[in-house]
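Section 5: illustrative case.
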């Protein structure tokens, strides 16, 4: 049994008996209870120790228990736990803002902080709309996103997403009038046999331009995309030249390029921003980040904006007309941030202090380079063990893909060319995820990424900490391959 998000219980044999809990969980069973963690190892209340190969959901980018981050949080709570962002700024927020703006190497001018990814994407969309409102173009009300995408779980951002399983219960209350979809950039599944990569990109570019023309070019706020698609299809990068082509359409009609790097950003792809390595090095007008920003030590996300967007807000209205108790908005009148005079950014001090510490660890311990190296090793081992001639899983493996510290294995269990297996009404990725958990390994099993309707496809996602070792990579692959082969042999 699985829930609508494609997750599974600890055992694929059935739903565990109900246990006492006062939490309305996101699963149909009570999840195991974690009591402590160190690095990539999580200890449960029954004494079992699990290896976390996915960082929760690509969040724990430096693992648990890093002493530098722990110390930063302790010191900050002793000094200042909270101030309200419309009254006071704080030192950690100012430091974090400068780190983020500097990381863009000129791409960004200002940022704002939120409590997580969904809030950050909500802020990005509202920022984009306010920008056009302040520019006296209120007719720009349409957003274009992609099928098989996922941008967050608020009603508005779920409307932007193209993930059928998550949308289904809420379809009747989602926004349809102002949110429109184009095809995913998923060459392995959707590039035609007679197309070159360049021709495939051109087809997608033309589709986006046709959508602009259909809606009215001057009514489009912007095009929204994950630089590398996360859990919905599993570490799927666009073909080379795709983002350059999409940006050219946006520029032609004056619309914005808005990138969602909540999952794939902040080092996950081996560079601070995924667009540097997997987005044709094309910076966006607006970008959302979250998971790897605080590394799980605090709940935090951010929206980064170009100088044009920042000036469009500040020169007209003077402040961002959006906010939460724990978020930040840039506005005229207080401090200097990143060399931009007369601008203040504010956010929750504890969250920002944790994020500053995490980003310093990533930099000082050279973790982007380590993530690139160990990630490539992970990918090579997965290919060797799963796709080599004679491997038990080889006939069923559709693809092994990824980059940096973000990888996925996609299976094709129902292909006519493979031996028939009886799934007994269950989903292969979910069965494998559960078997891995039984063996002490946490991975993310997802379904529905192989077709637009979300009814086919099984993939497993890996997103380990950037400071993982080669031996830990080998252990992850050993357990995973053993689990896959056991499940397949049983299904035969």
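Designed sequence:
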């Amino acid at each position: 049994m699985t829930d609508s998000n494609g997750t599974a219980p600890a055992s694929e044999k059935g739903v565990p008996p109900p246990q006492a809990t006062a939490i309305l969980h996101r699963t149909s069973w009570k999840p195991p209870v974690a009591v402590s963690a160190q690095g990539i190892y999580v200890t449960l209340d029954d004494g079992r120790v699990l290896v976390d190969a996915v960082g929760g959901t690509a969040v724990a980018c430096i693992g648990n228990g890093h002493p530098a981050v722990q110390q930063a949080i302790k010191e900050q709570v002793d000094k200042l736990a909270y101030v309200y962002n419309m009254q006071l700024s704080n030192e950690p927020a100012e430091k974090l803002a400068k780190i983020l703006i500097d990381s863009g190497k000129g791409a960004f001018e200002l940022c704002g902080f939120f409590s997580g990814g969904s809030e950050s994407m909500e802020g990005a969309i509202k920022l984009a709309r306010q920008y056009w409102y302040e520019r006296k173009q209120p007719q720009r009300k349409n957003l274009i996103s992609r099928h098989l995408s996922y941008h967050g779980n608020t009603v508005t951002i779920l409307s932007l997403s193209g993930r059928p399983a998550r949308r289904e219960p809420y379809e009747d209350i989602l926004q349809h009038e102002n949110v429109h979809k184009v095809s995913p950039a998923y060459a392995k599944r959707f590039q035609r046999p007679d197309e070159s990569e360049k021709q495939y990109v051109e087809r997608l570019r033309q589709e986006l331009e046709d959508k602009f023309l259909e809606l009215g070019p001057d009514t489009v706020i912007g095009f929204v995309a994950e630089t590398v698609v996360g859990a919905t299809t599993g570490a799927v990068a666009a073909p080379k030249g795709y983002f350059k082509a999409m940006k050219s359409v946006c520029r032609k009609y004056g619309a914005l390029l808005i990138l969602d790097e909540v999952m794939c950003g902040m080092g996950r792809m081996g560079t601070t921003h995924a667009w540097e390595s997997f987005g044709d090095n094309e910076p966006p007008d607006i970008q959302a980040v979250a998971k790897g920003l605080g590394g799980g030590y605090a709940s935090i996300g951010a929206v980064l904006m170009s100088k044009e967007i920042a000036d469009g807000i500040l020169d007209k209205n003077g402040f961002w007309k959006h906010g939460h108790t724990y978020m930040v908005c840039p506005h005229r009148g207080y401090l200097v941030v990143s060399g931009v005079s007369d601008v203040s950014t504010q956010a929750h001090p504890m969250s920002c202090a944790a994020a500053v510490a995490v980003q310093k660890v990533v930099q000082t311990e050279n973790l982007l380079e380590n993530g690139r190296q160990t990630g490539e090793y992970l990918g090579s081992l997965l290919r060797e063990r799963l796709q080599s001639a004679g491997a038990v899983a080889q006939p069923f493996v559709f693809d092994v893909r990824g980059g940096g510290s973000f990888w996925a294995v996609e299976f094709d269990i129902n292909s006519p060319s493979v031996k028939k297996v009886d799934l007994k009404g269950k989903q292969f990725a979910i069965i494998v995820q559960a078997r891995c958990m039984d063996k002490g390994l946490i991975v993310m099993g997802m379904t529905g990424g192989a077709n637009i309707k979300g009814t086919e496809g099984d993939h497993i996602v890996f997103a380990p900490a950037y400071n993982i070792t080669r031996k830990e990579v080998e252990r992850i692959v050993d357990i995973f391959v053993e689990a896959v082969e056991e499940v397949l042999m049983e299904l035969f």
